């Protein structure tokens, strides 16, 4: 949901480098965890990763003409199905593919990856944290989606405010006001994504419950 739709040159080279470096570090940690801790190299993980990457990239390109354009990206669903490590790699790939077709600048990939990894991780841990609560699967997935997208919007705003936008004469308070309006619109669309995610997770539990094993408690 949250995505920095700025072209190259909007951030200074210093901040572009910082966000890229942080994103690469996080992605490398995801790869290390998958290989050496979880040892996730089975076909099921690869199938889920491929499916989520394709679905996220496809829906990412569907623009909703509100406030300059917003969209869904299925990051909470990715987190619920694949977990933070697999999800982190997926959103990194999706951001690269999106930049390749002009959806945001190449310099924004690092920052956007951090935003989306936040959404993936928060949704995953919220979904798991609600397992013991007396909630339906639909409600758990919906709440996890809203939590992930809310934190993603917060991180997006923080990154932009810290980095500053070159060539913009507005004060930081004016920028914050505009970004807050955008986040409000994003959260309106997040409600739709929460309902969609709830239905998808409920359906998957009925037909392929094994796909949700990553989101179940560790035993």
Automatic annotation (TrEMBL):
It is a multi-pass membrane protein. GO terms for cellular component: plasma membrane. The chain crosses the membrane at residues 12-33, 45-64, 76-98, 137-163, 175-201. Its main location: membrane. It holds the Pfam family CbiM. It is found in: Cell membrane. One of its GO terms (biological process) is transition metal ion transport. This is Substrate-specific component NikM of nickel ECF transporter. The lineage of its organism: Archaea, Methanobacteriati, Methanobacteriota, Stenosarchaea group, Methanomicrobia. It comes from the Archaea.
């Amino acid at each position: 949901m949250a995505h920095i739709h700025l072209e190259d040159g909007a951030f200074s080279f210093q901040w572009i480098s910082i966000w890229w470096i942080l994103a690469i570090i996080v992605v490398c940690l995801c790869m290390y965890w998958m290989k050496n801790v979880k040892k996730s190299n089975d076909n099921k993980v690869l199938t889920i990763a491929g499916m989520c990457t394709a679905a996220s990239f496809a829906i990412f390109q569907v623009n909703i003409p509100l406030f300059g354009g917003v969209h869904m990206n299925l990051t909470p669903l990715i987190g619920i199905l694949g977990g933070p490590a697999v999800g982190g790699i997926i959103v990194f790939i999706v951001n690269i593919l999106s930049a390749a077709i002009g959806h945001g600048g190449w310099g924004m990939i690092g920052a956007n990856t951090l935003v989306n990894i936040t959404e993936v991780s928060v949704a995953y841990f919220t979904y798991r944290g609600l397992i013991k609560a007396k909630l339906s699967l639909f409600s758990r997935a919906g709440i996890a989606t809203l939590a992930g997208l809310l934190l993603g919007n917060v991180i997006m705003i923080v990154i932009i405010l810290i980095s500053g936008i070159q060539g913009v004469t507005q004060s930081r308070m004016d920028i914050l006001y505009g970004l807050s309006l955008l986040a409000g619109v994003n959260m309106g669309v997040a409600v739709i994504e929460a309902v969609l995610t709830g239905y998808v997770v409920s359906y998957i539990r009925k037909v392929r419950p094994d796909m949700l094993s990553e989101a179940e408690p560790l035993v």
